[in-house]
Amino acid sequence: MKLHWGPLGLCGVDEAGRGPLAGPVVAAAVMLDPERRIDGLRDSKKLSPAARERLAGVIQRDAVAWCVAEASVEEIDTLNILQATLLAMRRAVAGLGRSPGEVWVDGNRCPEWPWRSQAVVKGDDKVASIAAASILAKTARDRFMRHLHEAHPEYGFAQHMGYGTAQHLDALKAYGACPQHRRTFAPVKRVLDQSRLF
Fold first, then answer.
1. Cα(113)–Cα(94) distance, integer angstroms
2. Across residues 12-29, what is the average pLDDT?
């Protein structure tokens, strides 16, 4: 699919990590120069880890502006995952260091913020700056989860990145929750509730 590049000043926003049971939700905001196109941009989920890392470096080098921000596990559990995601997106755009002309957000809703914006369903496969944002958000979050794996290897975070795989659920039952588990998410809450019974 041919990506839409838009005018200079267009900011794309995407997130990574809404679904996992552990770790922060990460958002990225990227403003690209349509005169300096980056080959290979697409939805980060359709790229290999090596391709994502390579493209992340190119985006950070060639973008007009970019910022990666997050909402913590504590904020996810306090606000809920949707509101925490919108908070991370607001932080990412606010951290650009320049005001975008317009902000396009992957998905079906935009945060409340002062910039003119629109939501673009499947935007990470349609809009170059959103695809770039999806790559930066995904690589930053995966890096965090690999570091978390070093601190808590028993959960296998480097393999599943916090998603609720059978391996992860088995580890949760065996070891309980670590500080980076989202306590309001049903599989984690179930394990914690069961441990209180004994």
1. 9
2. 98
Pick from 106, 121, 118, 127: nearest CA to 1: 127
Q: What is the pTM of this model?
A: 0.95
In b/e form, how buried is each residue of 90-124, taking b as 16+ CB within 10 angstroms?
bbbbeebeeebeebbbbbeebbeeebebeebeebb
Closest among 66, 110, 106, 73 to 90, alpha carbons compared:
110
Q: Give whole-number Cα distances, 79 to 63, 71, 83, in Å.
A: 32, 10, 6
pLDDT of residue 118: 97
**What one-letter code names the amino acid at 13?**
V
pLDDT given for residue 191 in this prediction? 87
Task: Please return the burial class of 174, using the count of CB atoms within 10 Å of its CB with bins 0-12, 13-18 and 19+.
Answer: exposed
Collect all residues with Cβ–Cβ distance below 8 Å to 49 and sequence separation of at least 6: 142
Q: Where are the domains of the chain?
A: 10-150
Strands 117-120 and 102-106: parallel
Give residue-wise pLDDT tens across range 57-114.
Answer: 999 999 999 999 999 999 999 999 999 999 999 999 999 999 999 999 999 999 999 9
CATH class of 10-150: alpha beta
